[in-house]
Structures are given as C-alpha cells and as structure tokens.
Amino acid sequence: MRKNRLLFQACAIAMLALGFLSSCIRDEAPNMECDIETMWIEGAEYEPYFYDANAMKKAVLSTEDNLTFTVRSLVLLPKQMAVHFTLTPGAKISPENGSVQDFSNGDVTYTVTAEDGTTTRTYRVGFREASRMVTNRVNSFEDYEEVRYAYSQIYYHRFLEVTSTGEKLNNVWASGNEGFCMSMLGRGQVSPEEFPTSSDPNGRTGRCVKLQTLSTGDLGRSVKRPIAAGNLFMGRFNVIHSLTNSLKATEMGIPFTAEPVRATGYYKYTRGEEFTGGDSQVIPGRLDEADIYGVLYRNKDENGNAVMLNGGNVLSSPYVVRKARVASLPPTKEWTLFDMTFEGDEEIDQELLANQGYNLAIVFSSSKGGAAFEGAIGSTLYIDDVVLSVKNKEE
Question: Comparing C-alpha atoms, which of 324, 334, 229, 232 is closest to residue 272?
C-alpha cells in the first residue's frame, strides 16, 4: 500500500532513530499487500446515527484487524449498511467493496486478497455503542491475546477489555510492545514475557499486568533511547508517528460518556539498580519511580478539530479538565492499594459528555521518565484489580 511503501523507504531512518515501525520490516513485494487502509460510511442520511460526521470514517492501523464504528445506539441503527474501503493497490475484498451487509447479528467478516491472488488477510467489521468499557467493577486483567509481529517469530501480549455483556474488545488498552519489536529483530523466536508489557500468572487475583523497564540494546543506546519502560494505557499505539516523534505514537484516550471520579487498584513495585538518562549515563543518587495517572480531556478544539493527546502533552494540555495521579508508589513486594481521585475546576459540559466530547485515559508505567527514555533497567511494576468509579453511573 502507498503508506507502507513510504514507511518502507523510511525504514532505515526509523531503525537508526529506533522509531519502532512495524510495517517497514515486511520483506514482501508490494503486490503481496492485502490491507484495509481506511473505511467509511457514505450518505448524509446516516449522520444522525453517529456522534459527528468524522466518526463515519476511520483510518486503519497496520496492526488492527477488528474494525469498529462508534454509534449512538445499536437499536436505532439500520440493520443493513454499506461499508466502503480503501485497500492497498491491486487488492480485492470480499464481500464486495461498498456492498450492503446485515450487521444486526454482529460483526461481518471481510477477506482482503492481495494482487498476487494468494496472500489474504481477514478483518472483522462492526458497530459499537459508546462507553462499552466496564466501570464500577473490578478489572483483574485476566483477558489478553497473543499477537504475532508481522511475519516474524516475535510474539507479544495485548490486553482486552471485557464489557458487561462479555464482549472482548482489543481497542481499549494499548502499549508500546509493537514498537519494542524493532529492538528484538534478529533474535529469532521471542516470547511475550520478554517484552516491556505482558500478562503474568502471579496476580493478586488470577493474572495481572507486568510492566518492566528493559534495555533497547546497542541500537537504542546509539540514538540516546537506551530503555523502554513497560506501559499500559487507554488509547492506541500508532507506529506511523514514531518515525519523527515517538511521543506521538502513544495516542492516549478513548471516547467516554461518564465523568470519572476515582480509580483504585493494587500494585507491587521493584526499582532497577541504576538510573540512566537518555545518553545512557548513570545518574548517581537518582531513583526510578513508577507512575499511575488518569486524565479526562476535551477531544475537540475551539474550531471543532479533533484533539488527541499523547505521551508528550497528556498531563500538560489545556484541554484536560480532570486529572488524577498517584502521588507516590514506594517499592513493595506485597500487593498494596493505590488510590487516586480525579480533580479539576472546569465544569463538565453534560451535553458534550453525553455526545462523546471527552476522552478518558488511564496510564500505568514502570518508569515515570520513560517517555524521555530515562529510567532504571529492571524496574518492574505489577498491576491488578483496578476499579474505575464514575459519577452517577451503575453497571
């Protein structure tokens, strides 16, 4: 596809910059590409079913295979809809591009076949109501999936959000695991436990999240990005932005229609021994710290343009209306309660909130300075039994 060819041309630059680009390592000819690049719904008559016209079109990341439109109500949505796609050059899709399909019984499966007629990729396309994330309930992070990186033998974990109806969503929680794959190339088979973010069986309740700060190897040190902190956040990791600004790769926040009040959970934390800066030099006396915080922010500016915060501005943006952060996370080998309250002086616009005008992000990191590639290798944060409480809402 056009996007992948440009990324492929920039791959050498990305590797030197440790830009964490996944699609650039695909050792395949252009006529073997079989991706959906964008999808959209046509027709002004469908706009009332969406929160705004922008929600009728979506750019598709190279790692996504479960594609969803967010709508106001599934009950009111027409049972049959026509979805249109932009595909990689020469590819074909079945069912036919733009054909009317019945979505009333759930997702529809589409198969994209490359120009070579052999290579295929399967997608699930569907519609979801807003705020499908479960609130006021314990999230023990039991559910995850194992993801294979491109055509390698590298595998990592991706956490799933389970809704009150039991549906498992893979587009709520994200991490930098995909980006870390760049530092694992050439090592043959790599297991998920070797990544900064993974599922661990030794949770407070069943399984838990394990976040660890790891070395990015000789290549990372050469470009002053010596470590990768384990992180888990609401949003998505966009490898395209990592070419020029790795902070923009962490697109933080998902549309949310309730006001967050409090988040609690349990953690264990061990600090790494030596804190290093971006130049790989040890900083004597500096201790690594874990980080847990959350923000609610307006997702459009004064002119109606979309706002998506990232690792560089999520805590400082003027669009943030509520902020919560755990003040201190002392090292502990026992499961220890953390508690943070969302605070802010700006009044929440209830109509805007009901119409998905705010995004929510909750972030966990094994190194507070991880966004600046500062931290201590070996710092490890475990997270389990998290509860997000919202105002005037019961699930």
Answer: 229
